[in-house]
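Data availability (excerpt). The following record was deposited with the supplementary files.
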Amino acid sequence: MTSPRSVRFDDDVLRRLDRYVRSHPGTSASSVTNTFVDEALRSEEHPGVVFRPGPAGRRAGLAGGPDVWEVMGALQAVRAQDAGLAGNSLVEAVADVTGVSPRMVRVAVRYYTAHAAEIDDWIAANREAAIEAEAAWRAEQDLLRVQGRAS
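Predicted structure:
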């Protein structure tokens, strides 16, 4: 549910907001303001988390690092390979796999605990895209294979 609020913007901020909305069809000043305020508050609550745009939409990422969903996907993969890993050992293993510092792995974990459904959606979408990409590649390989012999 939304609640109206009266907010005053500096003239320069309002000009930049209007310019942003004009350059992003389908948005409004209200929707952009809501998104950016939400992201700023999330970044404040989770130092080290930033938000970045992309073809599939804006998503949470680690400052100077991968998206949060990538770190959490790696954590799930590491845990699937060794269910006995937990705590610092799990964090260290994920850090080794991702190249992200253990501190930033913990930032991703904390963000995930607050926004699990959002991150799970990104992980699922990535898995679906990977399955589709592999199927397309296999179909391509089948078409390109020399008839009568395997290559």
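Summary of structural features: Residues 117 and 123 are 10 Å apart (CA to CA).
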